[in-house]
Structure formats: structure tokens, C-alpha cells
Amino acid sequence: MKPTPILKVQNLKVHYPVRSGFINFKPQSFLKAVDGVSFDLFPGEVLGLVGESGCGKSSLGKSLLRLQEPTAGQIELSGQDFLALKGEALRSRRPEIQMIFQDPYASLDPRMTIEATLREPLEAHGLWKSTQSQKTLNKILDRVGISSVALSKYPHEFSGGQRQRIAIARALILNPKIIVADEPVSSLDVSVQAQVLNLLKEIQKEFNLSMVFISHNLAVVKYIADRIAVMYLGKIVEITSKTELYSRPQHPYTQALISAVPIADPKVEKARKRIQLQGELPSPINPPKGCAFHTRCPIVKESCKAEAPKLKDFEKPSWQVSCFEVR
């Protein structure tokens, strides 16, 4: 029996108004950062979200927490309409879904001690209990590899990797069911990236967390994710398990991405065929008609320029591809 999704996203859109001039308050057009995204996230699953810079990954991640209000669509959190919640009803559900931001230098307030940073979410939700919660702070810091001595210190006293560990602790402090990790290791040194990734993987399994892991690094996503969704210009073009995606990518954009991932074996690397995409990513303010990828697609047909393909099942319901040429 198929498990019930803990997070269900249907036809989600995030459009930013674009205005011209200083006194023109009426939008002249809209930047379609996320343009009709649908997916399910299951309990204990890590869903990787990959794509080029500017494809809408971060906007999608923020909209899942309603840090950025969606323009349209539906988000169901544990079966409840998350977008319909307001006021105290919304506040009571917010602890269930938390976020780890990309830049640990910007996501921690430099004027707040680490203790104040970790206490803030508990106080905001009326969960702070002096003795018991103080033990929770010490425990959660220890779990992410930071000494409790750090509680009296400020963010500038820590390295980037340590700051990101503190940010992870802050995301865990409310005991969430879902973590949205937005490029959590991209700003860290390569040696530190592996440590933080291993920590995230351990914590995800230990707490049975569901996670949306956003990254442009396919090697990182392959290591941590169970399923992978590939985004292009605000849309998901392919979604399936990481095994199937890396062994038999179906969408031409996914094939190009996979072909760009370096292989450690020099002989294999030299013999493999790379797919070179021509042109630049189109503007999300004025996306091309039909299939958004047709301006760079190596197998484009005339029908691709007239009509946009929808995500459809390929071989099985869990493998979906948005391409007319994939049957």
C-alpha cells in the first residue's frame, strides 16, 4: 500500500510582479519563478530538487513554508490545506516545517548570542520552559557537534561550517516533521561540505525527517536524496528515484545535466559523451511558448514550440517526465 504524503503540492505558482519606473505601482509583467509545480513528499523521504541557477528552486522552497506566499496552487501539510491557515491556526502548524538557509553568514543574527538564536523559536511558540528547555538547547547543540559553551557566544566567533551546524540546530529545535534545506552546503569549503552532509543524513534518519533538499550540485543530491525532481524555468521536467535518474535519464535536459557530472575514472570520463546545450536560459519574465526547453533542446520538434507538455507517467506512476518525445 502506497504511503500517504506528508506534504502534497499541486500546481503551485510563485509569480513576482515586475514594475517599471519609480511611480508606476501597477505591474507591467510577472516573473514566473515557479509556474505550476506538483509533487508529493512522503514520511521519512529526502526529495532532491535540482536545476540551474534561476530556475525557481529557492522560491519553491520558501513558498512551502509560506515565507513567500504562493500566487496560486495548493499545499497540503499532513492532509490539511496549509495555504488556508491564518493567524493562530497557521502559527500552531509552523513548527512542523522548518528551513535551513543557504548562507550561514546571513541567516544568523550577528547581534544575538547562540542561546538567544535557539531560544527565539521556542519563545515565539510559547514552548520555552527554563530548566527543561535549557537542557534541550545543550542536547541539540551537542547533537550537531557544537559545545554548549557556544551558547554565550556570537555568530562571528564561529567558522562557516560551525554556523551552519548552529542553523541546523535552530531548524531542529521545534522538532519538525519536514526540513527544507536550501543549498545548505554550497557556501562551505569542500572539506566541510562532506561533514555537514553526513550530519544532515544522520539527523534525517535519526529523527525520521522528511526533507526537501535543494541544490545545483548533482553529486551532492545523489548522495543524500531518495528521489530527485529536476526543475527547468519554474517547472518540474522529470521526477523519479535517484537510481533511475542517474542510470536512465529520460528528459533531454536531465540527460544534459547528468552528462556534465564528472566521473572519477579518467578512461570512462574521456570516453563518455557530453551533451552541450546551446544558448542561455530564457527569461522567466517572458518564457517561450510551448515547451520551455525547446529553445535549447537537441531533439526539438515543431509541436514542442506550440504546446507545453505535461508531466506524465513513464513506465510507472513514480517516474514522471514532461516531454512529448518520451513515451
Poorly predicted spans? none
Shape by Cα distribution: globular
User: What strand order characterises the main sheet?
Assistant: 6-7-8-3-9-10-12-11
The number of helical segments is 11
How large is the radius of gyration? 21 Å
Distance between the termini: 26 Å
Fraction of residues in helix = 25-40%
Total E-strand runs: 12
Instruction: Give the averaged pLDDT, no decimals.
Output: 91
Task: Give the gist of this structure.
The protein has helices at residues 57-65, 87-93, 104-107, 114-124, 130-143, 160-172, 190-206, 218-224, 242-247, 252-259, 266-271, and strands spanning 7-18, 29-41, 46-50, 72-77, 80-81, 97-100, 178-182, 210-214, 227-232, 235-241, 312-314, 316-321.
Q: Overview of this structure, please?
A:
The chain has helices at residues 57-65, 87-93, 104-107, 114-124, 130-143, 160-172, 190-206, 218-224, 242-247, 252-259, 266-271; strands at 7-18, 29-41, 46-50, 72-77, 80-81, 97-100, 178-182, 210-214, 227-232, 235-241, 312-314, 316-321. The protein is α/β, with parallel strands linked by helices. Helix 6 packs parallel to helix 7 (190-206). The two termini are 26 Å apart. The mean pLDDT is 91.
